[in-house]
Input
Amino acid sequence: MAAGILIGAIFWYRRSKGQSDLLLIYLGALIGGFAGAKIAYLIAEGWLEWQQPDRWLKWATGKSVLGGLLGAYAGVEITKHLVGHKASTGDAFAVIVPIGILLGRIGCYLNGCCLGKPTAGVFAARDFNGIMRWPAPAVEGAFQIVMLIAILLLQRRGLLRNRLFFLYLTAYGLFRFLHEFMRDTPKVFLGLSGYQFIALALAVLGFVMLHRRTKSILAPAM
Output
């Protein structure tokens, strides 16, 4: 997480070229991201830890990437409104976010968290306790690499300009909804985890904003 924040900060500082409003926007993204990550964790599974003796430790350390994305988006939009910044910043975040989450999933693997379901399948990997599991952090890391490459290619070709972040939100939301079936997370309603409902909200937000931005870009040419 620290590496992701540092890399993002360096990238954003170089992009901002000393513009204070852009630096404030990145700060707004960080604050919103941390807040969203904590709130989403508490809603998705933190409340289930109430009876556990180590609940305070889990509540203090638990966080959700999905909630972080929603919170960061809200933080950016609020900050942009406060500082009067009108230009789109999504394409820059579309590059930063996959890198940050990829580094985060490496941390998940090294610390044995965000595990996949126990399985005996061909793709199973042994965890630190010797249990064969679906390699959830590795699979998500691979997804982030694919998305980063796709975004860079689209950016280089000038495609979906000012819409790449919404494309990422849509794709990641759908991926996480499906991938949750292979993750060892508590299923709280209709056989779904709380994270799956948050993932759907993320995908819907991304799709709606992608459609709205595309419609506004094409409108003058009609």
